[in-house]
Amino acid sequence: MNTVENATGYSEATESARLARVPLSHMSIEVGHFYMNDLTNGEDRIRTQFRRIVPLVGAYTEIAKSEYGPRARVSTCFLIDDYFRSDTNPGEILRKLLGIADECGLRIDYLAREAGCFEVPVAGPEGVSVSRIPLADMVRSRIVPEPYEGTNGRRPPTMESGWLCNGKRANEGDSGQAMHEEAYTPPEELGRREHSIFLDVEMWSRRTKVNGRADGHTKWSCPYLASIWQLLRLGMLRMQGAPIVEPQPWGPGDEWPDNWWDMPAVLQLNPKAKPFAAYRSISLLPKRYLKIEAAVQLILDHIQLDDDVVDQIVSRGREEGITLPRKVTDRIGHVLLDGV
């Protein structure tokens, strides 16, 4: 696979690259999520989750109207778990998923691919090209771990290890004495109150050798890709001033490809849908994703976003009478459902 040339950063709000105004809804609602194994094993779990979500979509649409007015722009989206299971058939999976959604009365405006948070296929009128934007790599360059005094360098830095934490790890900073056991020091959260809630998140792993041969393959974690997914939903990512992802129209008569990689990163299923990106996002998810979403917040809190993009989004909100926090995690909400 080829990658787009000069794709070294996602900001590029320079004199030569005008910062695009991405169309924005008031609210983006994520309508559930499944692991690929859930989608390949029967229909009951899909149907149960969608039935629980339908009234919540209605409720949050009304909440948006009460906050932003009767003409509030609300769109819905669904993320397919194709990064970790690309060996499945898109047509079989999506016909089942969208058929059950239609049966349950659940509107899905946009369908996105999790692998599109890793590499974005360049899509156009002629379809998807072999060129891809290395989005996960680009966002990685914006991660800024919090420094902590007293670390002794025994553990590789975040950019090497792929691990990110919110404080001081256990035992770091204690050199110990020769011939003596090292005293245990518990982990410590930066900015804690009375006690620490310490999180340590693996964002990616690397395989350096496969069958004895050198291999530089990076495998991205679910929380890391989900962090990029949230940034896409909030319209925060650019490359040379332009949006990295632009939803591609997909009609009922269009044939699903045999391979996930032959699909755009985001499909617009509803031609009348309000914009994909939004000022705020809400995700209606099974409770089993609680740990992942906690990790997502930690990662997002350590990504240095482009100030010009943040300024533009906040300013556009102000033009509509909406006060938006600059911190993206303050614009993301969740409803976690048990029993689904």
Question: What is the mean pLDDT?
Answer: 88
Based on CA atoms alone, the radius of gyration comes out at 21 Å
User: Largest sheet, described in full?
Assistant: 7 strands, mixed
The structure class reads: alpha/beta
Distance between the termini: 37 Å
| Outline | globular
Number of domains: 2
Q: Into which percentage range does the β-strand content fall?
A: 15-25%
What is the element string, with H for helices and E for strands?
EEHHEHEEEHHEEEEEEHEEEEEHHE
**Which percent range fits the helix content?**
25-40%
Give the number of helices: 8
> Tally of extended strands?
18
Strand arrangement, largest sheet? Answer: 15-16-4-3-2-17-18
**Spans of 5+ residues with little confidence (pLDDT < 50)?**
1-16
Structure write-up:
- This protein is α/β, with parallel strands linked by helices and 340 residues long.
- The protein has two domains: 2-140 and 219-337, no CATH class; 158-202, no CATH class.
- 27% of the residues lie in helices and 24% in strands.
- It is built from eight helices and 18 strands.
- The protein has helices spanning 36-40, 44-68, 90-104, 135-140, 158-161, 222-233, 290-300, 307-319; strands at residues 2-3, 25-31, 74-80, 110-113, 120-124, 127-133, 163-165, 167-168, 188-189, 200-202, 204-210, 213-220, 238-239, 242-243, 248-249, 266-268, 278-286, 332-337.
- A seven-stranded mixed sheet has the order 15-16-4-3-2-17-18, sandwiched between helices.
- Helix 3 links the parallel strand 3 (74-80) and strand 4 (110-113).
- Helix 2 crosses helix 3 (90-104) and helix 6 crosses helix 7 (290-300).
- The two termini are 37 Å apart.
